[in-house]
Amino acid sequence: TILPSGLRVLFIVAVLFFPLPGMRRAALSTLRGRAAPLRRIACVHAMQPSISSTLPAFQEHWPEAELVHLMDDSLSKDVRPNTSMDDRFVSLARYARDGIGCDGVLFTCSAFGAAIEAAKRDVVEIPVLKPNEAMMEEAVQLSSGQSPIAVLSMFQPTLPSIVCEMEALAGHPLNLKTLFVEDAMAALDAGREGECVDIIARAAEAAVSEAREQGEELACVVFAMFSMARAKEATEMLLRQLPGETPTVLTSPDTAVLRMKSLLRQ
Q1: What distance in Å separates the CA atoms of residue 231 and residue 238, rounded to the nearest whole number?
Q2: What's residue 37's pLDDT?
Q3: Is 73 helix (H, G, I), strand (E, B) or coil?
Q4: What domains does the chain contain, in order, with CATH numbers?
Q5: How much of the chain is helix, strand and coil, in % rounded to 5?
Q6: Whole-structure pTM over 0.90, yes or no?
Q7: SS (H, E, C) the chain
Q8: Which of 7, 22, 104, 138 has the most CB within a 10 Å radius?
């Protein structure tokens, strides 16, 4: 319904100060001159550092998105082999959809692929994304199913999950060289971000060098965690100093944000 300009202003002011569910975003969109409403995206985190890796990706690729950050750091503490986390992830996705009216859910925690799949099956009305799915697709394409891929993580439980997901995506076993980057998370949690970045970059350099000693060239280097994206630039600089072709360094925040944006604009 098109309101006269005077009534439209009164409507916007009323909604902003006395909002009904879903109406505040529409009012803000009108004030900003957008025909379409803002998209509210829930970013669900299991670790605090994931937030600071998520924000730059949205700022670069989708600054108009409205972000809601949900933090449950007990998830990373409670993860155990052969223990289902499905119910907890389904509850988080339902809350994002029903409790705060989100248009999409982006999980940034990489160790819970099966649980996020359960949430995707349950919450079908809106996009629910795993943090690495777009990045994993790109990695599989770069490898052509044959070239080795280095997969680095600073949280051990992430590695078995991402290996299973990448091989399921490819449809066959892959040559994956997994590496747990010890001490990087401890440095980040202690506020020593520069040290964390250096540890990750050095680990990637070692992975490339080790592959070459075995006569192999990596198709790419994959950072399995959102919070590792902070080390991409330093890693690329270090790898360019090595002889030979520099492998691509893949991180998940950029690809995940672009995937969510494309799904909600279809």
Answers
A1: 11
A2: 61
A3: coil
A4: 40-130 (3.40.50.2300), 132-251 (3.40.50.1860)
A5: 55, 15, 35
A6: no
A7: CCCCHHHHHHHHHHHHHCCCCCHHHHHHHHHCCCCCCCCEEEEEECCCHHHHHHHHHHHHHCCCCEEEEEECCHHHHHCCCCCCCHHHHHHHHHHHHHHCCCCEEEECCCCCHHHHHHHHHHCCCCCEECCCHHHHHHHHHHHCCCCCEEEEECCCCHHHHHHHHHHHHHCCCCCEEEEECCCHHHHHHCCCHHHHHHHHHHHHHHHHHHHHHCCCCCCEEEECCHHHHHHHHHHHHHHHCCCCCCCEEECHHHHHHHHHHHHHCC
A8: 104
pLDDT of residue 111: 81
Res 82: pLDDT: 74
Measured distance CA(127)–CA(263) in Å, rounded:
7
**pLDDT in the model for residue 81:** 76
Q: Are 143 and 175 in contact (CB under 8 A)?
A: yes
| Average pLDDT per 10 consecutive residues for the chain, totaling 266 residues | 38 39 47 62 93 93 96 89 89 97 94 91 96 93 90 93 92 95 95 97 97 95 94 96 94 94 87
Alpha carbons 158 and 147: distance in angstroms, whole number? 22
- The dihedral over CA atoms of 49, 155, 68, 192, expressed in degrees to the nearest 10, equals 0
Residue with tokens 């070459």: 212
Of 76, 62, 77, 65, which Cα lies nearest the Cα of 112? 76
Q: What is the CA radius of gyration of the chain?
A: 21
Task: Indicate the length of the chain as a whole number.
Answer: 266
Strand 176-180 relative to strand 149-153: parallel, antiparallel, unpaired? parallel
Q: Which residue has the tokens 């990373």?
A: 76
